[in-house]
Structure formats: structure tokens, C-alpha cells
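Inverse folding, one chain.
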């Protein structure tokens, strides 16, 4: 979950690291640090100031001497050890020459720690990562060069890592390695870079390469070479990177969350572009699973986490209704450990914005191991999930920076519903005319989302009116249920207020006991087929004193009888409503958070990409 960066050969080593860390803060910001190396000297600075860690680090670095040949930097999201300066990376070996940064978890760190301590190594942190520095020191003391020392060390390490190592005795070299946690290498004439995420080095490097699991890379000013754990040379695959830096900037908005909410109409257009041929066939360019294989599917399992799991839940309704296939949706971290059944014909779909969420990657690996065909629905091109799957559908939402996912959700729903239509087409469970009509409605969703964005003030006014509320229940039925879950998740993430999502029908089975004056119930009431049922749910909570907010369709006059506040949206084909109805809920959460003075882009305790279990 941490962010890492490294550079060798740059005339602006320190500035490159600090700028990169500023762009990596969304991966974690409990602390930040750099280690810079020139012949015979390793200079380190660290700071642990919560969301201000990188800014504090910059101040610390004002005292840095010049002339460094290489350097590494780290932003931390704490897993082992409190978020304090002594636990901040880089960690040094006993000599002070070797410095390491690490993203991931070393599972056997306790055993390694005890062995190394018995050999006389002195530890200064309570992190799992520090063992790496001392392990490498052991091999360096035996005269091995840095690359070989890292390779030997990794042979005994269990767990996940993206790591980078510098040593004052080899100042023109960085050694980096990866298992599970993401790592890319970048090159430009005279300098070589590494990072956990491309944006950190996007404006510095010209060509980018993916490091695969159990590969070790030696970076030098003139380029890099890579080996596997056995020491055999490997070639890194060049990545196609089509982002520019502007995509990573706020585009004139106060924060990334607003920017990303506003990008949703464009994102929908991009996700749907070129997906239907003239003859009506729904098509995915990147799809590596053949039509025959898709026809042979007998059961679909979707695995995902967080917001992506809510998008997956929407897909269940669409695939079952249109393609008449039985669909299961699982939380990725549960799927992996519950001995799942994979039969011939099971298609597993891993849904992930980042494509690096460890739970989702491990769930799809487990499914593959058991013989399933795996499709990734991912946003980040060439991400680990995308690379490992048999096929990938990219959501084309562009870089999402705000920790709270917004535009990725609508893109995921659109991509998954397209896949549902493709399955229906192949299985002939819908008439061609029905598919054509649904595709036309799907294409119109972007315009409807654009309409909701023009109503921002109305949605914000509702949030301001409810500014003092502390307890929220979100209700929905059918696809309104995952929409309600997503509305609740957005609110709790950015406001830190209590919010829960429920299917409307579950209300009487427990949650109703919690309804009293002061509680706010937000209902998604846009599906005509479910309208009466939701209205009676709302009557029940209103009778018990709750304040009622309803997401309702333009022209729905009945809603006023039960709702104190209405978030109006344009009417949409019911299966596509999550993409429209979520927008007022995103803006509602945002406005509540701003009213409470929260940092919407970087909510406490959360990180954008969860690369540890
Ligand atoms: C919610 C949020 C998280 C992510 C979850 C999965 O706003 O951002 O719940 O949705 O961590 O991340 P991805 O989609 O990258 O696998």
C-alpha cells in the first residue's frame, strides 16, 4: 500500500524523489522518507506528520548536501509498527551504508529478525521491512555485489514486496525487486527510475517497463538489467502508457474528488466507445476469451472489494436478467479462503479499479488455480490483475487519484453491463432488437449523468440542511441496493459518519430498531417496479421520526408524500440507474464532508490501493 520511487543518474535526484512522493501520497501518507547516496555516504531524511508527511520531509531535506548519484523514496501506509518516524522508510543496515524501501509484508519477518539479531544485528524499528536491510548486509559482508546480495536475501523471504535498495559502496546502482506488490521501471537517456506507480515518474521517464513477480532489476544511469530468483536474465515488457501529467492534476477543481465526479460523462463515453460493430455485435478489443469459450460458460462468479464489489453486485442483476446465467458475487478476501467451487464452465470476473488490490488478485489466482477462466475488469492498463487474467476489459476511466472511488464505479458498471449484453447476445437470450435498444439506452446514460451534474447546487443544499446528522441508513431494492451500498460507503469514507446500506426489504428484519428522530434515511427510489415497496419502507421510517431523503426521478410526484428532501435525477432504463443515481449520492457525501472540514481526497486511515491483506 506504500508508494515507492527511486532514481539513479539524474542531476536532480532529491527533487525527483520529492515530486514523485507528492504524487504518490494517495498510496499512503503515515510517513515519508528518502535515502540519497554518493560514494561512501548514505544520507537519510524521514518525517511522520500524517497527511503532511511529504511536506515535512521536504523541509527536512532543505539541509541535504548535494552531489548524490542515486536515491530512493517512500510514502508509508502503516501495517507493522506505529506510524512514527523510527518506523518510516528507508531503513538502514547496521553499517548505515545500505538503505531499503519496501511496500508489502514480509510474512516471516519475526523468524528472520530473531536469526539476524542472534548474529549481532541491531534493529531500530518495529517494522517487518527492516529485516531486508540486515539480510542484505549479511551478504554484502561476504563480498557479494548488491544485485546478488538482494537475490540471495529474497530466497529466504516469504510474503509480498516491491523493494528498492541503495548502498554507498555501489553509489551508481539501485537494486529493485517485486513479488505481488506493483513495480515499474522507467528510462530516459542518462537516468533510470523505479516506482510503485507510473504517475510518480511519468514526467521524468520516456519508456516504462513492468517488473513481474520474483524478478530483480539492477538500475544504473545507462539503463537496467533484470534477473529472476535463480539469477537467469529476464526481459522486462515495455508498457504502453497513454497518460499525460495533466490527467493527474486537478483540472481547476478544488480537489480530485470533484474533478473525478465531473469527469463521469466523459468516462462513460470513453468506456462505451467502439463497443458495438455495425452488425450489432458487442465487442471488446482487449478480450482474449473466445466467443466459443463465453458460450460455454455455465456460471459466473464476480470477485472484488469495496466500490468495485458494488459494481459487481449491479452486474449480477444484469447478467442474470439478460444472459440467464447464474451469478455469484463474492468479496474477494472471502472467496480465496472459503474453498470455492470451480466447475467446468465457471467464469470468474475480477473487478478492480487499480488492478493491484491484493485480495482481488489472490482471489482470481485461486480461481485460476482451480481451473476457471478469468476476466479482469480493470482501470489501470497493464496492472497485475490485467496481466494475469485470461482476458481483460478496460474501464477507461483514466487515472483516479481521490481515495474515494467515483468515476471508476460508473465505468465498471458500464463495462460489466456491456459484458452482460455480450453474453446475452452469444447465448441468444435476448432478441437483437432488445440488445440494440438497451445499447442505445446505455449510450444515453452519459447525458443523464451530465444532467445530474448541473444540479450540484440542489444536492449540496440537501447536505447542508442535514449538516448536523450523524447516523445514516441507505436503502434500495434491485440495482438500487448496490447503489445504496455505494452511497453509504462514499458517505462514511469521506465524512467519517456512521452510514449503512441495506436492501429495503431487510429493514423490518432488524435495522428498523435503530430508526429514531435524528437518523437520516436515504432511499434510492428510481425503479418503477420497486417504487411502491420503497415508498412503504420510507413511510415506516418516517413514522418513527427519521428524516427522509429520496433519489427520485423527474416527474415523480408521489415521492413528496414521504420524502423530506428529494435528489432529482432524469429517468433512466432501470438496469442502468446505478450510474445516474450514484451521482447525487457522491455529491451529497462530498458536501457533507466539506461541511465537516474533511480532506475529501485523502480520508484518514485509507489508501487508494490496498496491496496488503
Ligand atoms: C471506495 C474505494 C475502495 C476500493 C477498494 C477496491 O471508495 O475506493 O473501497 O473500491 O479498495 O479497489 P480496486 O477497485 O482498486 O480493487
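Residues assigned per position:
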Amino acid at each position: 500500500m506504500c508508494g515507492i520511487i527511486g532514481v539513479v543518474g539524474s542531476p536532480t535526484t532529491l527533487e525527483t524523489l520529492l515530486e514523485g512522493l507528492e504524487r504518490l501520497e494517495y498510496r499512503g501518507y503515515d510517513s515519508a522518507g528518502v535515502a540519497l547516496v554518493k560514494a561512501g555516504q548514505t544520507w537519510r531524511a524521514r518525517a511522520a506528520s500524517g497527511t503532511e508527511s511529504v511536506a515535512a520531509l521536504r523541509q527536512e531535506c532543505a539541509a541535504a548536501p548535494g552531489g548524490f548519484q542515486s536515491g530512493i523514496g517512500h510514502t508509508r501506509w502503516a501495517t507493522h509498527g506505529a506510524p512514527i518516524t523510527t518506523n518510516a522508510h528507508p531503513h538502514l543496515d547496521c553499517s548505515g551504508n545500505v538503505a531499503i524501501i519496501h511496500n508489502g509484508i514480509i510474512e516471516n519477518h519475526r523468524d528472520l529478525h530473531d536469526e539476524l539479531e542472534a548474529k549481532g544485528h541491531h534493529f531500530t524499528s518495529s517494522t517487518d521491512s527492516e529485516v531486508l536491510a540486515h539480510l542484505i548486509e549479511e551478504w554484502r559482508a561476504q563480498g557479494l555485489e548488491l544485485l546478488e546480495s538482494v537475490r540471495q536475501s529474497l530466497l529466504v523471504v516469504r510474503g509480498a514486496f516491491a523493494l528498492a535498495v541503495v548502498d554507498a559502496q555501489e553509489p551508481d546502482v539501485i537494486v529493485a525487486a517485486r513479488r505481488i506488490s506493483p513495480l515499474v521501471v522507467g528510462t530516459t537517456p542518462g537516468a533510470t527510475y523505479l516506482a510503485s506507480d507510473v504517475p510518480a515518474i511519468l514526467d521524468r521517464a520516456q519508456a516504462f517497463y513492468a517488473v513481474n513477480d520474483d524478478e530483480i532489476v539492477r538500475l544504473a544511469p545507462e539503463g537496467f538489467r533484470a534477473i529472476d530468483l535463480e539469477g537467469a536474465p529476464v526481459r522486462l515488457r515495455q508498457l504502453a502508457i497513454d497518460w499525460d501529467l495533466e490527467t493527474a492534476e486537478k483540472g481547476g477543481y478544488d480537489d480530485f474528488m470533484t474533478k473525478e465526479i465531473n469527469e463521469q460523462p466523459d468516462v462513460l463515453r470513453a468506456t462505451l466507445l467502439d463497443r458495438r460493430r455495425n452488425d450489432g455485435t458487442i465487442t471488446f478489443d482487449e478480450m482474449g476469451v473466445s466467443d466459443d469459450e463465453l458460450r460455454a460458460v455455465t456460471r459466473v462468479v464476480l470477485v472484488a472489494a469495496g466500490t468495485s464489489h458494488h459494481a459487481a453486485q449491479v452486474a449480477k442483476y444484469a447478467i442474470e436478467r439478460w444472459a440467464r446465467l447464474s451469478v455469484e458475487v463474492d468479496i474477494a478476501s472471502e472467496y480465496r479462503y472459503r474453498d470455492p467451487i470451480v466447475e467446468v464452465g465457471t467464469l470468474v470476473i475480477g473487478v478492480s479499479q487499480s488492478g493491484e488490490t491484493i485480495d482481488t488478485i489472490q482471489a482470481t489466482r485461486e480461481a485460476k488455480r482451480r481451473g476457471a477462466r478469468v476476466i479482469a475488469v480493470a482501470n489501470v492498463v497493464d496492472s497485475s490483475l490485467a496481466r494475469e487474467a485470461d482476458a481483460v476489459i478496460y474501464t477507461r476511466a483514466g487515472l483516479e487519484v481521490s481515495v474515494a472511488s467515483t468515476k471508476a464505479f460508473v465505468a465498471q458498471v458500464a463495462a460489466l453491463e456491456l459484458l452482460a449484453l455480450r453474453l446475452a447476445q452469444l447465448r441468444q437470450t435476448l432478441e437483437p432488437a432488445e440488445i440494440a435498444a438497451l445499447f442505445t439506452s446505455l449510450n444515453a446514460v452519459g447525458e443523464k449523468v451530465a444532467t445530474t451534474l448541473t444540479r450540484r447546487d440542489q444536492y449540496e443544499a440537501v447536505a447542508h440542511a442535514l449538516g448536523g446528522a450523524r447516523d445514516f441508513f441507505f436503502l434500495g431494492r434491485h440495482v438500487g441496493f448496490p447503489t445504496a451500498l455505494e452511497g453509504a460507503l462514499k458517505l462514511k469514507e469521506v465524512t467519517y459518519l456512521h452510514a449503512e446500506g441495506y436492501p429495503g426489504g431487510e429493514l423490518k428484519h432488524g435495522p428498523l430498531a435503530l430508526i429514531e428522530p435524528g437518523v437520516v434515511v436515504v432511499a434510492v427510489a428510481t425503479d418503477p417496479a420497486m417504487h411502491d415497496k420503497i415508498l412503504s419502507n420510507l413511510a415506516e421510517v418516517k413514522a418513527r421520526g427519521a428524516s427522509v431523503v429520496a433519489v427520485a426521478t423527474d416527474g415523480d410526484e408521489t415521492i413528496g408524500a414521504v420524502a423530506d428532501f428529494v435528489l432529482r435525477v432524469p429517468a433512466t432504463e432501470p438496469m442502468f440507474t446505478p450510474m445516474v443515481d450514484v451521482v447525487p449520492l457522491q455529491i451529497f457525501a462530498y458536501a457533507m464532508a466539506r461541511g465537516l472540514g474533511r480532506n475529501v481526497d485523502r480520508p484518514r486511515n485509507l489508501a487508494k490501493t490496498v496491496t496488503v491483506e
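The pocket of fructose -6-phosphate is lined by residues 305-308, 352-354, 357, 360, 404-405, 489, 493, 609-610 (CB under 6 Å). The radius of gyration is 25 Å.
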